[in-house]
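Usage

Read records sequentially. Each one opens with the input sequence:
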Amino acid sequence: MKTARKYMALIAVALFALLAIAVFAAASVPANAETQAEEQAIVMVTDDQTAPAAETAEESADNSVSGKAIAAGVAIGLAALGGAIGMGIAIAKASEGIARQPEATGNIRSSLMLGLVFIETVVIYALIVSILLIFVL
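and closes with the structure output:
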């Protein structure tokens, strides 16, 4: 069980690191889009061409939305992948432990369920972060 706990801890740390990377990636995309929109507004004032500048401002807004969607998709995809791998390892080790010591089935099963709950909460946190990326940032 110590090995399974190490794997679960490593997977949890990796998932939080990946989520942090996704959040920073999504946060940098709107900043670049805003900078491009400001540059295009300056071009609009100096060139007196309102129609092309309005179209490019819409394109930069679309780019920031697509960047958020990509970051959210990467975050939830990696979290689900890591959670699935962690759950698979934990279930395999629990099954192995039950096969070796059938009299400890109750203790192993309760520890397994507690570990699976913790892994699943990390995946749910990833889902919440990806939803926040799409709708709030």
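Summary fields computed downstream for this record:
- The chain has three helices and no strands.
- The helical segments are 2-47, 50-100, 105-135.
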